[in-house]
Amino acid sequence: MTQTANENPTNGKRVLIVDDDRFITRVLMMKLEQEGFQVFVAHNGSEGFEQVMKYKPQVVVTDLNMPIMNGWELCTQIDQAPEENPHIIITTSLIEHKERDRVKEFSNARLVDKPVSPKEICALIQECLEYSAREGEQK
Fold it and tell me: Minimal CA–CA distance to 1: which of 56, 34, 44?
């Protein structure tokens, strides 16, 4: 089931958390809300992609290892949706060295090793938003 924490439509800082670990999603959601983000949560890649299409988040934080649709598949789906272009922060604790290069296939993705603190995730999200703002100013 999808959870939305803050339904304020005027908040432009929309973040989607996709992870099957409900403890992680709850902790991240609480921290991000404290920092003023509008947060959406999904527990597998399929739900995550539905949330991307519905809520148009600027940043997606996703785990790789999930049921139904994993994080790689989610990134591929997002990448193939030309109208969507969120930044993607991929979190994982189990990944082979050769798979690390796979993240380069996705234009706005970066890989972060778990464990990662909610504070670090907030800082990464802010970097993504600042990058988008700079890119928007250059256009």
Answer: 44
